[in-house]
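ok new one. same drill as before - C-alpha cells go in, u give me an amino acid for every spot. 163 of them this time. try not to just spam alanines like last time pls lmao
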C-alpha cells in the first residue's frame, strides 16, 4: 500500500525528538527505532532511524549527522487550534528550548518550524468586510504568539461584524 509520510533528518537527536513530540500531542507514540549494529559506521547501539506518530500522522526520522541537512522555514508544520488555550498549550510546549518568531511561527529545540494558529485567525482575516479583515491581518503581523482576543478587538475596532 502506498503512503506518504514526512521524513525528518536530525543530527543525532531522533529518539529525543520523537519522545518530545509524542509527549505534547495526543494520539502519539514512538514506534520502531533501528540502532547501529557494531558492524556498520555509527556508534553501536545509537539510533540510526525510526518511526513515530504525532496526533495520528506517521513520521519517519533519521540521524544523518550535522554536516548534511538542516531544517529551514521552507518546510513547517501547522497546527490549527480551536481556541486560545490550545494555542497557548502548543506554543509554550513547542517553544520550550526553541525560538519564537513572528505571526504564530516558532522553531522548536531541534530547529523544526511550526505555525501555531487559531482557527479564528482564518475567519477574521477572510472577513467579508475588507476593513475588518485588514485590521485583523495588521494585528496578526505585530504578534509572535497569536492572541485571539487581540485579533477580535482589532477587527471590531474597524467595524461591527457582518451578519
Amino acid at each position: 500500500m502506498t503512503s506518504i509520510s514526512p521524513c525528518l533528518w536530525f543530527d543525532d537527536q531522533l529518539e529525543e525528538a520523537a519522545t518530545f513530540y509524542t509527549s505534547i500531542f495526543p494520539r502519539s507514540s514512538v514506534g520502531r527505532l533501528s540502532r547501529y549494529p557494531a558492524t556498520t559506521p555509527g556508534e553501536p547501539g545509537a539510533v540510526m532511524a525510526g518511526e513515530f506518530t504525532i496526533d495520528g500522522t506517521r513520521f519517519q526520522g533519521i540521524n544523518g549527522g550535522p554536516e548534511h541537512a538542516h531544517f529551514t522555514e521552507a518546510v513547517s508544520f501547522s497546527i490549527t487550534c480551536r481556541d486560545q488555550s490550545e494555542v497557548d498549550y502548543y506554543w509554550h510546549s513547542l517553544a520550550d528550548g526553541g525560538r519564537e518568531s513572528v505571526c504564530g511561527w516558532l522553531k522548536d529545540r531541534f530547529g523544526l518550524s511550526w505555525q501555531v494558529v487559531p482557527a479564528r485567525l482564518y475567519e477574521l482575516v477572510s472577513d467579508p468586510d475588507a476593513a475588518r479583515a485588514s485590521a485583523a491581518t495588521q494585528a496578526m503581523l505585530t504578534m509572535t504568539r497569536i492572541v485571539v482576543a487581540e485579533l477580535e478587538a482589532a477587527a471590531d475596532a474597524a467595524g461591527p461584524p457582518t451578519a
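The radius of gyration is 19 Å. and btw The mean pLDDT is 95.
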